[in-house]
Design a protein that fits this description.
62% helix, flat, mainly alpha
């Protein structure tokens, strides 16, 4: 899990710097826009206890995934995360995942490990580094998909978590509704004085899929530990 910290911090810093640059470049006010929530008969789409359980199940699954190293297990984990994302009503876009995988694979060139597959000048592409980078990419992709599945939940109140989800939903919805080029849409979203938070379309929190996620995550983690320790092969 620790080797991924640098990559996560790098992406977070880059995203922050990019947003700050665009704000200064377009001379946009740094005041936070006002959130305008749409009304819906499904606004209370579940008890707070179920919502907290869904959040905790996602966090637990992410933690267990980050503690696993087997690429095959992580690939199954990623597929389960995509299924949950689809059930939660979020569209699946593979371009961000592919871009992430390419970036991590390219960074593996600088940390050679294991058998050399081929060389590009003084840089060596090794089997161990590729497997490690593939595992890291699957962990981050699974975590991203699992996090997006929480968009089906609606939280009330001024808490940091509630405001973060509301602003994320508002920015995503506003960006998708605006017309023009990507630059024009980004400028309009960043300069908006009001952002509309879309009403929840879910009648109830999909509690069962999140409960199944906990069971599958625990099973995958157990299999990963068994394969790593080899307890079924007479090894300690």
């Amino acid at each position: 899990m620790l080797p991924l910290t640098g990559i996560i911090i790098l992406f977070s810093v880059f995203a922050g710097l990019l947003t700050a640059f665009l704000t200064r470049f377009f001379m946009i006010s740094t005041d936070a826009p006002v959130l305008v929530k749409e009304t819906s008969s499904y606004e209370n789409n579940g008890s707070s206890g179920k919502k907290v359980f869904c959040v905790c199940s996602v966090l637990l699954s992410i933690i267990l995934a980050f503690m696993s190293d087997n690429p095959c297990i992580l690939f199954v984990w990623f597929i389960c995360a995509l299924v949950l994302q689809k059930i939660s009503g979020r569209k699946i876009f593979f371009i961000p995942h592919i871009s992430l995988w390419i970036f991590i694979a390219a960074s593996s060139v600088f940390v050679p490990s294991g058998k050399v597959l081929f060389a590009l000048g003084k840089l060596s592409i090794t089997q161990g580094a590729l497997l490690t980078s593939f595992s890291k990419a699957l962990k981050l992709s699974a975590a991203a998909s699992l996090s997006q599945s929480l968009s089906c939940l609606s939280f009330e109140g001024p808490s940091f978590f509630s405001l973060s989800l509301s602003y994320f939903s508002a920015v995503r919805f506003s960006f998708s509704q605006m017309k023009g080029s990507i630059i024009e849409r980004i400028k309009k979203v960043l300069s908006a004085e009001e952002l509309k938070v879309p009403a929840s379309k879910n009648k109830q929190v999909p509690f069962v899929p999140f409960a199944v996620l906990v069971i599958i995550s625990a099973a995958l983690f157990a299999v990963s530990v068994i394969l790593k320790t080899g307890v079924f092969y007479g090894r300690v």
